[in-house]
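ok trying again, last paste got cut off:
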Amino acid sequence: MVSNCNKFYFVASGVTCSKVLSDANISLADFAKWNPNVGAECTGMWAEVNVCVGVIGGTTPTTPPTTTSKPVTTTTTTPGNGIQTPQPTQPGMVTNCNKFHWIAQGVTCSQVLSYNGISLADFAKWNTGVGADCSGMWAEVNVCVGVIGGAATPPTTTTKPPVSTTAPGNGVTTPQPTQPGMVTNCKKFHYVSEGNTCDQIISYNGITLANFVKWNTGVGATCQSMWAKTYVCVGV
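nice, full thing came through this time. structure:
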């Protein structure tokens, strides 16, 4: 994935390349350019990862979209900050969200609140589908854990600083949750699905093990401690 990406699309299992192009209203040429590892014919696209479907400056003017020019329906841009909402999302998410958290299987509501230093009241307000007691929170979706202007209700947990960081120069916020020990200046991320190996991630992103370990110290020198269902850094 290119380093100047500012719009992302989560490729769920079973989603085809043509659906991604249609949903994001982009051409295959641009998609392959922004995600070199998918290949010119999109045969290398993986499931359960985020791909780039937009960059700072927009699409290449000389490459018209191959699909009809319908509006983008799968993602919405948060007003004023240019951050694209990652997919899929918890139903009822507010439109002015600018900080997101991926809910892996087994994650509890209290863990999300504590990890992000927010209150249940704000979390339920930003994600109305979860309900006042958070009983409706889904797994395997992105939820909103921050909005433009900040929280309205002080968190009930300790007032630790937010865990996510903004990548310098492009305003792209680090997706959550992350592999422990990730560097703070990361600007390219990879979601580690169940069953992914370190070798697959290194090969897919065209990086070395040495750099991968340097950017994600928690994985260990031989990558033996890499966590599944977290984001790792694959570019700075």
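cool. Confidence is low (pLDDT under 50) at residues 60-80, 153-170. The longest strand covers residues 5-11.
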